[in-house]
């Protein structure tokens, strides 16, 4: 399993890293190299501190959510065990498209059952509901001048239907006594859904929402740092749209390049921002939200990967 994960990472890098470089070059051709220096220079030491506090607070709630959900199958699981595995997996996942490498967390916990693997897969989607629901409403507000209240109403309806769909999936999986397909991924996902009590499912969604709010606060701090006068409401709309849209095109490591391109488009069409406003935030955030946690988790990833390999060899 570990060898397969390394092989997958290598293949993804071959495709996605050149794509990220190409997108960054596209940004440079539009706004110039100065954007990178200005982005770093605009953040004072105090802003960097607050930004990192938001990063690690959000990461703490992500690990807390994983721990709460995995304890359903592994009652004696320690938070520190999940924290180490989570930081190691973060390092592996930060530079993979859509952070798919984060799923390695469960592979680093010895003796994980099929049900635990399924719970870990369900845990990975707990951030989706707030991002997709609030993102769809944000798009409705963003396009309000063009589509009017009908467009906003449709976007709110989509958000409500999305939440209803999540609840339906949770209940429909529990209504069946076996998976609808024999494919391994869906079997594990089925066991994950059926293992979770309703209160743990709801707590997972709540913790996902808390993560979303923390990142939104961080985004607001970034706008304040670069001197933007955009209102709190408008910053929330832009954030919701940015989070949603880049989740659909998460093809590059750490969303490098895609965040900047989407930010340029959003900034050109809303609240009187300029194309280079949002990249001045997303570039420092790439350092604080991706590079720094990945560097911290990298030694853990190397150490735990070796331990897992020795464990598999002994078996």
Provide an overview of this structure:
The protein contains twelve helices and no strands. The chain is an all-alpha fold. It has one domain (12-314). Helix 3 packs across helix 4 (79-93), helix 3 packs parallel to helix 12 and helix 10 (232-248) crosses helix 11. It starts with a helix and ends with a helix.
Descriptive keywords:
315 residues, mainly alpha, 0% strand, disordered N terminus
**Shape, principal axes of CA atoms:** globular
Count of separate structural domains: 1
Number of strands: 0
Strand content: under 5%
Structural class: mainly alpha
Helix content: over 70%
The whole-number mean of residue pLDDT values reads 79
Beginning-to-end CA distance, first to last residue? 13 Å
Q: Which helices and strands occur, and which strands form pairs?
A:
Blueprint: H1 2-31, H2 34-42, H3 45-70, H4 79-93, H5 114-124, H6 128-142, H7 144-175, H8 184-195, H9 198-225, H10 232-248, H11 258-267, H12 279-314
Helix pairs in contact: 1-11, 2-12, 3-4, 3-5, 3-9, 3-12, 4-12, 5-8, 6-7, 6-9, 6-10, 9-10, 10-11
Short structural description:
With 315 residues, this protein is mostly helical. 77% of the residues lie in helices and 0% in strands.
